[in-house]
């Protein structure tokens, strides 16, 4: 098997899900056989938004021939990763380079995990929601938009409310009685808005 590990391994993080890794080629005489390529082993150490330690699954990408760089796609935003590089010949792979640590930046969050509308009265509705399963960063706020829908399914004026990230419920007051409302709800990180969840609810007709 090859005798030495690739040197000078560098990681360039391109965005929250993509990184580029490059390395110096090993001297050909240390390959001790036919150079087939290089293997990059990489794995997620932890999410930076949650302290959960999961079973670490190592991923391997093989770059054929004498390439000295490769792309690592499909990374998770706002996470800490480690990687190393090994050279491969027909017999197997050589020793690993020292582990290199890199971090991906924040991304936009997934949609809130749920939106529930309860306690209808003549002029109010209570909204409850769950934070996104994948925040992909530090949540900065939620945005709620809502509008009435009349009997011919036309949409009325849209109202927008910014809600602090640490809230998980809201009572909407001063609504019209016996009116159907449509709600659009999403979360934000400093990077931008995530995908929205929608829901409809009706205020009651009379007490």
UniProtKB/TrEMBL annotation:
What domain of life is recorded for the organism? Answer: Eukaryota
* Keywords of this entry: Disulfide bond, Immunoglobulin domain, Repeat
Which SUPFAM superfamilies does this UniProt record tie to the protein?
Fibronectin type III
Q: Does the keyword Cell membrane apply?
A: no
Matching InterPro entries? FN3_dom, FN3_sf, Ig-like_fold, Neural/epithelial_adhesion
- Give every Fibronectin type-III domain span: 5-107, 111-207
Signal peptide residues are: none
Which terms in the GO cellular component ontology are assigned? neuron projection
Family matches, as PANTHER family = CTX-RELATED TYPE I TRANSMEMBRANE PROTEIN, NEURAL CELL ADHESION MOLECULE L1-LIKE PROTEIN
State the protein's name: NRCAM protein
Its gene name is: Nrcam_0
